[in-house]
Design goal:
The protein is mainly β. The chain has helices at residues 28-35, 41-50, 225-234, and strands at residues 19-20, 60-64, 68-70, 74-75, 81-86, 90-97, 105-108, 112-119, 122-125, 129-136, 142-145, 149-155, 160-163, 167-173, 177-179, 203-209, 215-222. The radius of gyration is 21 Å and the shape is elongated. This is Polymer-forming protein.
């Protein structure tokens, strides 16, 4: 069951310009009209059911009639949002995160811009998604992008993504679970090139020595996915920049 049955929601639209369903700031008819836009019927049915139960959830349905700009991070769980509807463009200066336990839903009718995205819940953007690092988390839910995805790095993990447009990513890690017309060429999880994009401590490294004494370094996937997510959410590089010692003249 998405949403914990712990009593009426106490969050009451902490997001600026968002109207709360539990606080009677947005009508049932407005929510029903908005969720008709979901590309997957399951979501419409699930939210329709939740409208009759949401008063018992420890979360809310939030509606923004227009563009939304978040100056910092946007964490749907921390905001108490079972569903956030943005009837316009969503811009997040920091990291966007959502959850799969309990499930959260995001519906953006326009484009979405975020410094980074870590998604485990139900994310749906009808326009383009612009982000630095796009990280999927587990496979209970999925993401649906109606336009293009433009990212510096894309690691889908086990999360499923539907991309109706094109995927333009500088780096694709692994073989993401994708529904897309043009499958991307990714860096396999056992490819040593991952060391160009991740610190060694984030990877599962196997070291050996050849018969002639030459060191052998093999990569066998991501060792610390939790740390990968944490760095992305905090805006920390996955590959720590090399510090070149400065030289001074006496």
């Amino acid at each position: 069951m998405a949403g914990l049955l712990l009593g009426a929601c106490s969050f009451c639209a902490m997001i600026a310009d968002a109207r709360s369903f539990t606080a009677n700031q947005v009508s049932r008819a407005e929510i029903l009209a908005a969720i008709e836009g979901f590309r997957e019927e399951y979501k419409t049915e699930r939210i329709t059911e939740a409208l009759d139960e949401i008063q018992d959830y420890n979360s809310d349905i939030l509606y923004v009639a227009g563009d939304l700009h978040i100056e910092g991070d946007l964490d749907l769980g921390a905001e108490g949002a079972f569903l956030l509807i943005v009837n316009g463009t969503l811009r997040v200066d920091g990291a966007y995160t959502d959850q799969d336990d309990p499930e959260t839903y995001l519906l953006v009718t326009g484009d979405m811009h975020a410094r980074d995205v870590v998604t485990a819940g139900w994310l749906e953007v009808h326009g383009d998604l612009h982000t630095g690092r796009l990280i999927g988390d587990y496979n209970d839910c999925s993401a649906h992008i109606g336009g293009d995805v433009l990212a510096d790095l894309f690691y889908g993990e086990e999360h499923f993504f539907t991309i109706e447009g094109e995927l333009e990513a500088d780096v694709v890690v692994g073989r993401p679970r994708l529904m897309i017309d043009d499958e991307p060429d990714g860096i396999d999880l056992d490819d040593p090139r991952l060391l160009e994009h991740f610190d060694r401590k984030l990877l599962r490294i196997l070291e050996d020595t050849a018969d002639d004494g030459t060191p052998i370094i093999e990569v066998d996937g991501i060792e610390n996915f939790r740390e990968v997510k944490s760095r992305v959410m905090q805006g920390v590089p996955l590959k720590t920049p090399q510090v070149v010692p400065s030289t001074s003249r006496s």
